[in-house]
Amino acid sequence: MKLASKFAATFVAATIGTSALASNTIVDIAAGDERFSTLVAAVSAAGLVETLQGPGPFTVYAPVNDAFAALPDGTVETLLKPENKDQLTNVLLYHVDDRNLSAGQIPAGSNYFKPILASERLCITKNSGGVMISDGTGEMAKVVIADIKADNGVIHVIDKVLLPGTRPSC
Predict the structure, then answer these.
(1) Distance from C-alpha of 25 to C-alpha of 73, rounded to nearest angstrom
(2) How does pLDDT run across 52-65, given as a tens digit for each residue?
(3) pTM score, two decimals?
(4) Cα-atom radius of gyration of the chain, to the nearest Å?
(5) Domain coordinates of the chain in residue numbers?
(6) CATH homologous superfamily for the domain 2-158
(7) Interacting residues of 123 by C-beta distance below 8 A, sequence separation 6+
């Protein structure tokens, strides 16, 4: 994880610059919060910074550093290698919806949602216990912080990295 954090800090300092500091995009918010340093490093390595600083709208299900740390040893470092950019991009696009979906707009019950990674689906379940997201592995991520507003969308903080795979049961 230290490699990812160091890479993120270097990239953010070199990429964001002073003009972007006046904005409040999804990337700006993530780059300004140490809990997302691994996510920022991954977004950078995948070449998605400019896209996620764009007008959107976007909903990003943003895993915290601990979610990346819970992946099998070496997974993050392997995904950050240039030769694995396509795989990393697919994992990251699985976390992004091309709409601005606040928690209040997510309907009660279990519903399929289409992330930007068009070949995949997420099952998002909302009930009195909160919001859970089932990924392609059948594992569940919990939304631990909802509705962090950005100029170009919204961030929902999750406790697990979502992984593409088979269509989750919904």
Answers:
(1) 31
(2) 999 989 999 999 99
(3) 0.85
(4) 15
(5) 2-158
(6) FAS1 domain (2.30.180.10)
(7) 110, 111, 112, 113, 133, 134, 168, 169, 170
